[in-house]
Amino acid sequence: MSIRLALEGAGYRYAGAAEPALRNVSLQLLAGRVLGVVGPNESGKSTLCLVAAGLAPGVIGGRLDGSVRIDGQATTTMRPHEMAQRCGLLFENAATQLSHMTRTVFEEVSLGPCNLGMPPAEVVARVRWALGVVGIEALAGRDPTRLSGGQSQLVALASVLALRPGCLILDEPTSELDPGGTRLVALALARIARETGVAIMVVEHKTDVLAEIADEIVVMDRGAVAVAGPAATVLADPRLADLGVDAPARVRLERAVKASRLDWSAALAGALE
Amino acid sequence: MAVSAEPGLLPEYVRRMPDGRYRGLNPVTRLALAAVAAIVAFGVRDWTGPVVVLGGVVLSGATAGVLRKMALFGLATIPLVASILLVNTFFYPNAHDIIARLGPLSPTWTGATAALQATLRVVAFGLSAALFALTTPMDDLLVELERRGLGRRGAFVVGSALGAIPRMAERAREVTDAQRARGLDTEGGPWRRFKGLVPLVGPVVLGALGEVEERTMALEARAFTAPGRPTLLRRLPDSNWQRAARWTLLTGSMGLAGASIAGLVRLP
């Protein structure tokens, strides 16, 4: 599997800040795989997203140490519109990602390809593809400002995907969503990685979601990577609680069963009989 | 020249072809008509300018089917109209043709005539602006302005400035509700309401600024600053006669207003 995004010893300090928000982070994002990022507040997750997508320092300034490469090219050598085509970024608040310049979801999703001056037939093909991948063809004619939170987030996701980036970075995409909306987004992400080969990095507090969709997980703490590894291993790591991260419900249940000295497999088998 | 999609390529909900005589005009033609109405209403002296504009605007409003809504917009001019009528009728300088003496006040024919003329100008302009706003979706206008060279950045500035008003109002409502839930008193007399406003200003303004930063980054992530002309999917109907009419009306109205102000042309 090819490496889409690679951070090597990446550190970042916001302009005017005394302390770096990110320290010596090294990670790789592989094509078709989902990397989950968890950690307590102020641990550097959102900064990691900005740095990985090249917006920091490219757009917001600040100082970057180490290297961040998208498809082998350093983000510091790329302009924002070039990075947009290689690495899509989705923020927590779906409402702020809408342009408020369009009247239908179709036009909202077309904004990125239109900005690049693509031929109309190509724009239309990309919009239809992105709507299809995310599974929101039925919303195409709707007003983007009059959608539910989950639907808005999916529209924002389709808008970024229409640029056909090789990797996708999502900063808490389900934080404002109810369980139904969360499931919609999670299923869409899993499908996108599987069907399109896009490499996905998703910051997510809901470890149950990560347990379903992530292949690997990185736990951030005070701007640095504290734990990293395969999703099942990291989510079962007892250090998670000390790092302010809730284990998934399944792991907590297993621990509770173990603590009560029940035979988990026997209990499960009994329940299934 | 910006590239547009072939008509059959786009779904109907994106093409959105306007229908009707007035709505079928290109948005830029409607914008030019609104500008002409403003120039003639305020630039041509005496009665002709405002009366012609008012007649044209009412006729266009009836054609577009928005006359009733225009009337509601027209109500917004009432405070201005009332002050124009009162000030001019009762305090017009150097007017001596008194209509009647009402205690210390002496309304004059000259003042009343000037007041009616000014009122007509304000109402004609207000209704023409209302007609334009009611018949022209902002995205239609921006698409056409972009096609004519207004950069995407310019279109975004106009679009987001107009779109920011309802968002700010919504944010203000949310902040007000949140502050009320924490015991802030925003009801009662004017002074109490004013005092209640102070703690709302910070969260509303700071929240809006934070939103702007995130929106900027979100737009960058969608290649907003890419060089070159963007693709414009929609093409709204335009024609040679509309292009000719726009330039003729604009230059003609400016010429007429200039001549009228200079006293070269005297209309009734």
Describe this structure as you would to a colleague.
The complex is a heterodimer of chains A (273) and B (268). Chain A is an alpha/beta fold and 273 residues long. Chain A has 13 helices and ten strands. Chain A has a single domain, classed as 3-Layer(aba) Sandwich (Rossmann fold), CATH 3.40.50. Chain A is globular, with a radius of gyration of 19 Å. In chain A, the strands form two sheets. A six-stranded mixed sheet of chain A has the order 6-7-8-3-9-10, with helices on both faces. With 268 residues, chain B is mostly helical. Chain B folds into two domains: 143 residues, no CATH class; 62 residues, no CATH class. Chain B is 68% helix and 0% strand. Chain B is flat. The mean pLDDT of chain B is 82. The interface between A and B is large, with 45 and 42 residues.
Helical stretch tally of chain B:
10
Strand order of the largest sheet of chain A: 6-7-8-3-9-10
Q: Please write the CATH class name of chain A.
A: Alpha Beta
The percent range for strand residues of chain A is: 15-25%
Order of helices and strands of chain A: EEEHHEEHEHHHHEHEHEEHHHH
Whole-number total of structural domains of chain A: 1
Helix content of chain A: 40-55%
Main β-sheet description of chain A: 6 strands, mixed
Structural class given helices, strands, pairing of chain A?
A: alpha/beta
What fraction strand of chain B? under 5%
Average of per-residue pLDDT values of chain A = 89
Shape of chain B: flat
- Computed Rg of chain B: 24 Å
Task: Please name the CATH topology of chain A.
Answer: Rossmann fold
- Give the number of domains of chain B: 2
